[in-house]
């Protein structure tokens, strides 16, 4: 049996037959034997020089920061302008998620489905073993326990990541409830997810480290049946902060399927209408398509208020009253920097005032950060994300298009008071969206849950810089989960239908598109804060006070139902935003039929029926 196979603690026999504790020194008193034994087994495989058990303390954070300043991984920003904040410059080959190196290793290929890269689990273990063997030589292995969700919440889950990257430790400290509190919740009966991460750059004695160690070979591997994650070769957030996409979406989606809940790529907001009624909304958009922005929206519609609960991931579960309750399992934001400015997302700008790690942004001469869209005009001189001199006359962007900020959620000025309620919040509306230059209207309401699942299943979106690949290319991204669903996507749709059938008060479902363009390639809709006009219509629909118009693709806002006063929008633009072109939609239907065909018999019959009904309505 391979060393990599997850074994019960009692089965671990190290070559030296030493007790596990000797191979995992420093384990805090009371650490679960299952964790200690697993750490020992990973240490004997990866052979780090040292093991450090992370407690999540400020002192530990300071020590790691100091270490990274010494190795050049971090540069301190001007403390007067950006206190306790740092710039990290990644290796040019390691700046985004690598979807073609991301693997779902289920026993059966059909359980991974056509939207995932599948590898046979035994084959993958055999591939990984030599890569991880000795991969932490010359480095420290950090043991990073974390809780996804408030500590002890009935909706939360525990995990432990080992990593040889201090950048990953400090980032996980910002993004999750990390440290001693999480470890204390694990006893020998507790379920926890083991996640192994190595940058894959062992150091020989005397060898100088580089600022951003990584490896040209990358494997981001998930074993859904044994709930394991093995990530090799990258230190970029989406590939290396395993609590986030790898656990809270890919592994958690499988747990959710098995346990009757949903792990989704969704922001959560709390919205209060002018009458004081409170709603909660969850929304799924693909990477770099507006989740963080909507999560921090500042309404332009008078009397409405939006507060932030989460900006990327939602775990949703039916409650005893038949409503859908959601938590944000994270505790921080890993947000896209470019496009984040005082005029577009002032809340994010306020959130990153200090205590923030910026990755692959540009640096100003005064020691602060800059990125495209932060201010209207670029400074006269910058050091770009690669560390080179930059002036506005250059054609290349100063910040990488996927540059990011990492910051604790509690720093967000609009964070809702119930954002970390262990019971979660009741979801009143669900929104699906994508980045579509044409065809898809600004907003449309699903007729019912099944139609809503059809809208989610058929989302398509233009590719962004969040993952390696061709930016702008249109692809199907069902539920904004194409890169994040740990099992067969068609089964995910079936699961949504099943969960919906158990709900007494299912949320209303909508589809939005902030990104429709005119013939000259300009966005038709101003977006950002103005999206509150759409949100107001959505929640007025939930309340039953707004008018809708039936159309072949769903319910559109009736004329005048969305307040457009004060918008710099000519009537022609408004019509174009809502245009439903039957020819384009028939093409869309053909595309969906082809897409569904790739899943064969696994497509739920309800969705095929939705497709056929839509086709009929479009003639
Ligand atoms: N035109 C327009 N652009 C938007 C809007 N909302 C967000 N954007 C831009 O889209 C890009 C990504 O927005 P984010 O809110 O960071 O996207 P995200 O979905 O959180 O992305 P991930 O963190 O990668 O999952 C940024 O450059 C934004 O400025 C909008 O309403 N209209
Ligand atoms: O995971 C990442 O790299 C960042 C992110 O939020 C996404 O791509 O959706
Ligand atoms: Mn985001």
From TrEMBL:
| Key word Manganese present | yes
Q: Which residues bind substrate?
A: 97, 236-238, 287, 402-404
List cofactor names only. Mn(2+)
Q: Which GO terms describe its cellular component?
A: cytosol
Q: Where does GTP bind?
A: 288-293, 404, 435, 528-531
CDD domains found in the cross-reference section: PEPCK_GTP
Q: Which residues form the Phosphoenolpyruvate carboxykinase C-terminal P-loop domain?
A: 261-617
Q: What reaction(s) does this enzyme catalyze? A: oxaloacetate + GTP = phosphoenolpyruvate + GDP + CO2
**Superkingdom of the organism of origin:** Bacteria
Q: For the region Disordered, give the residue spans.
A: 1-25
**Pathways involved:** Carbohydrate biosynthesis; gluconeogenesis
Q: What is its EC number?
A: 4.1.1.32
Q: Which HAMAP family match?
A: PEPCK_GTP
Q: Which family does it belong to?
A: Belongs to the phosphoenolpyruvate carboxykinase [GTP] family.
- Which proteins does it associate with, and in what oligomeric form? Monomer.
Quote the PANTHER family the UniProt record gives. Answer: PHOSPHOENOLPYRUVATE CARBOXYKINASE, PHOSPHOENOLPYRUVATE CARBOXYKINASE [GTP]-RELATED
What name goes with this protein? Answer: Phosphoenolpyruvate carboxykinase [GTP]
The upper taxonomy is: Bacteria, Bacillati, Actinomycetota, Actinomycetes, Micrococcales
């Amino acid at each position: 049996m391979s060393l990599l196979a997850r074994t019960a603690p009692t089965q671990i026999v190290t070559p030296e037959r030493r007790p596990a504790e000797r191979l995992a020194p420093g384990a805090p008193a009371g650490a679960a034997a299952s964790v200690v034994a697993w750490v020992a087994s990973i240490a004997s495989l990866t052979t780090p020089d040292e093991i450090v058990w992370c407690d999540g303390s400020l002192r530990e954070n300071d020590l790691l920061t100091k270490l990274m300043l010494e190795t050049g991984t971090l540069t301190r920003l001007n403390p007067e302008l950006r206190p306790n904040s740092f710039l990290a410059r990644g290796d040019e080959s390691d700046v985004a998620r690598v979807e073609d190196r991301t693997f779902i290793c289920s026993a059966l290929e059909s359980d991974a489905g056509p939207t995932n890269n599948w590898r046979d689990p035994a084959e993958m273990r055999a591939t990984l073993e030599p890569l991880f063997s000795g991969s932490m030589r010359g480095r420290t292995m950090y043991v990073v326990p974390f809780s996804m969700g408030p500590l002890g919440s009935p909706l939360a889950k525990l995990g432990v990541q080992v990593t040889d990257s201090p950048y990953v430790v400090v980032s996980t400290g910002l993004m999750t409830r990390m440290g001693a509190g999480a470890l204390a919740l694990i006893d020998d009966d507790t379920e926890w997810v083991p996640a192994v991460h190595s940058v894959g750059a062992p150091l020989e004695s005397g060898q100088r480290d580089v600022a951003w160690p990584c490896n040209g070979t990358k494997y981001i591997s998930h074993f859904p049946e044994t709930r394991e994650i093995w990530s090799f070769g990258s230190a970029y957030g989406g590939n290396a902060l395993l609590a986030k996409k790898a656990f809270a979406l890919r592994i958690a989606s499988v747990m959710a399927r098995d346990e009757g809940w949903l792990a989704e790529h969704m922001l959560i907001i709390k919205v209060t209408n002018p009458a004081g009624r409170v709603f909660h909304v969850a929304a799924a958009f693909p990477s770099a398509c507006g989740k963080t922005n909507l999560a921090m929206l500042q309404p332009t519609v008078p009397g409405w208020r939006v507060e932030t609960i989460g900006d990327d991931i939602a775990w949703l579960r039916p409650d005893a009253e038949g409503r859908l309750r959601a938590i944000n399992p994270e505790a921080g934001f890993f947000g896209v920097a470019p496009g984040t400015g005082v005029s577009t997302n002032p809340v994010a700008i306020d959130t990153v005032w200090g205590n923030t790690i910026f990755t692959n942004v540009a640096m100003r001469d005064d020691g602060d950060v800059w990125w495209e869209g932060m201010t209207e005009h670029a400074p006269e001189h910058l050091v770009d994300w690669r560390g080179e001199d930059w002036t506005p006359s250059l054609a290349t962007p100063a910040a990488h298009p996927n540059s990011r900020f990492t910051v604790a959620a509690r720093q967000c000025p609009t964070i809702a008071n119930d954002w970390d309620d262990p019971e979660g919040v009741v979801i009143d509306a669900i929104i699906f969206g994508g980045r579509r230059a044409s065809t898809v209207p600004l907003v449309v309401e699903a007729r019912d849950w099944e139609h809503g699942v059809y809208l989610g299943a058929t989302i398509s979106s233009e590719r962004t810089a969040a993952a390696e690949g061709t930016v702008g290319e249109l692809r199907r991204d069902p539920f904004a989960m194409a890169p994040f669903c740990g099992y067969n996507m068609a089964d995910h749709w079936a699961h949504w239908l099943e969960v919906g059938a158990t709900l007494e008060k299912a949320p209303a479902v909508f589809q939005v598109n902030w990104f429709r363009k005119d013939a000259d390639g300009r966005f038709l809709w101003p977006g950002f804060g103005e999206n509150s006009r759409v949100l107001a219509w959505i929640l007025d629909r939930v309340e039953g006070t707004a008018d809708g118009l039936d159309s072949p693709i769903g319910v559109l806002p009736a004329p005048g139902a969305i307040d457009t006063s004060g918008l710099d929008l000519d009537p022609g633009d408004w019509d174009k935003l809502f245009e439903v072109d039957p020819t384009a939609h028939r093409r869309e239907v053909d595309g969906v039929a082809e897409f569904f065909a790739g899943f064969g018999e696994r497509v739920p019959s309800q969705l095929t029926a939705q497709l056929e009904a839509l086709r009929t309505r479009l003639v």
